[in-house]
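TOKENISED FOLD:
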Amino acid sequence: MSNHGAKRPSGAPAAQNLEYRAAHLRDRIAAGPLGELGVRLEVRGEAVLLTGTVPSAHCRDEICRTVQDELAGHPVHCDIVVTETSSPDHAEELT
């Protein structure tokens, strides 16, 4: 029996391709120069959501730019939080 006439759900190959590309991108973000393990990349339909925390705005911007470049044509929502550990610019007043 042949499956030549079987229909796939609309967009199924594209969704699988996006999942595949996203999985490799997750590995690249974790193992790359930024080495960010605190970033999650989730595929939601045809869009991608980035969440997590990073140490600097530069790191966040670099990750968002990398994902947008690699997954061009798909909406990328970057909800990464920056937790900069800079020293305070004034003394804390205790009462």
